[in-house]
Design brief:
Number of domains: 2
CATH topology of the largest domain: Lipocalin
Order of helices and strands: EEEEEEEEEEEEEEEEE
Shape: globular
Structural class: mainly beta
Strand order of the largest sheet: 6-7-8-9-10-11-12-13-14-15-16-17
Helix content: under 10%
CATH architecture of the largest domain: Beta Barrel
Radius of gyration: 26 Å
CATH superfamily of the largest domain: Autotransporter beta-domain
Oligomer: single chain
Distance between the termini: 14 Å
Strand content: over 45%
Number of strands: 17
Largest sheet: 12 strands, antiparallel, barrel
Length: 318
């Protein structure tokens, strides 16, 4: 539904913001690009419409206020019988069925392309897809990233990475439980494929409309296929995620993961990246992303030990 539709006034909705936060309440009014939402606890909240990615109408009767006791249905009056007898006991009302709100999805496609002609013929391309699924107590993140470089018609880089992470919020806590997995396919590495998985706990230090900061720790493993060593390697998982909105159109995102080998001291692999995003069109959810990604593996040969990728991408959200 569109929050600018006059028929939306008075509707009970779930609203997903640009930073993937979800708020719910009743739409009071929409004036001069600002939506006023009546929240059950916080009262009236003013939200700029250009920060709203989606809104879903939900029947308010199906969602009782937090902490409130569901109101039992009204029983019809018991007909009075003139004969003397025991009082008629009313039937126990059934508990109302509460439907959980629908999950909110947010997806984006990123495309980067550059090249040169003349003394050198180079073509570099990058394609990425990211999607998240958010509910009241869970968050699922999936991303895929493909990079290919050519020089005079010959491939010089060809790598595909796939990652997924599921987080479960612990009740009344800043802690979450996470489960993650990853796959990497690289034509020019000493292995054909690498898979990894692990689980642990994450703590949210800051989580508001503009800034998010969290760190996580856990244990897992990684295994190479088609390489000199195909044994599973137990690993420690450490990571940090940070994002901050600079203005209505700009934000920065930084993340990093470190995987120390639990069987060999001093051996580890790491993945870190940073990017700046600028929203070009709020109506079409079109953005520009400029950033860098660094990958390091102490157990790789010197030729493949470190990779640094710079990118400029056009991002389309939906």
């Amino acid at each position: 539904m569109s929050v600018n539709d006059p028929r939306a006034i008075g509707s009970f909705v779930f609203i997903r913001l640009e930073n993937d936060d979800v708020v719910r309440g009743t739409i009071v009014r929409v004036e001069r690009g600002v939506l006023t939402l009546q929240h059950e606890v916080l009262g009236d909240i003013e939200i700029p419409t250009n920060r709203i990615l989606s809104a879903q109408r939900v029947s308010e009767e199906k969602l009782p206020a937090p902490g409130a006791t569901p109101t039992p249905p009204v029983q019809p009056p018991v007909e009075q019988i003139p004969e003397v007898g025991p009082p008629v006991e009313p039937e126990t009302p059934l508990e109302p069925v509460i439907e959980e709100p629908e999950a909110v999805w947010a997806s984006r496609v990123e495309l980067g392309l550059n090249g040169s002609q003349g003394n050198s013929e180079r073509l570099n391309g990058q394609l990425a897809f990211r999607t998240t699924r958010v509910t009241e107590g869970t968050r699922l993140s999936i991303d895929a990233n493909w990079r290919v470089n050519t020089n005079r018609g010959q491939r010089t880089a060809n790598r595909l990475t796939l990652n997924a992470r599921q987080d479960w919020n612990l009740p009344e806590s800043q802690w979450t439980l996470f489960l993650q997995s990853g796959s990497e396919f690289d034509e020019f590495r000493e292995f054909d494929a690498r898979v990894s998985a692990g689980a642990g706990f994450s703590y949210r230090f800051i989580e508001d409309e503009d800034t998010k900061l969290s760190a996580r720790i856990g244990v897992g493993f990684s295994r190479d296929f088609g390489g000199p060593d195909e044994n599973s390697v137990p690993e420690l998982i450490t990571g940090v995620d940070f994002s901050h909105r600079l203005t209505d159109r700009q934000r920065i995102v930084v993340s990093g993961e470190l995987f120390p080998d639990l069987t060999e001291t001093g051996e580890y692999r790491s993945v870190s990246n940073a990017r700046w995003e600028y929203r070009l069109d709020t109506e079409q959810d079109l953005s520009l992303s400029i950033g860098v990604e660094h990958r390091y593996d102490t157990q790789a040969t010197s030729e493949f030990r470190t990779d640094v990728d710079y990118f400029v991408r056009l991002v389309l959200g939906f």
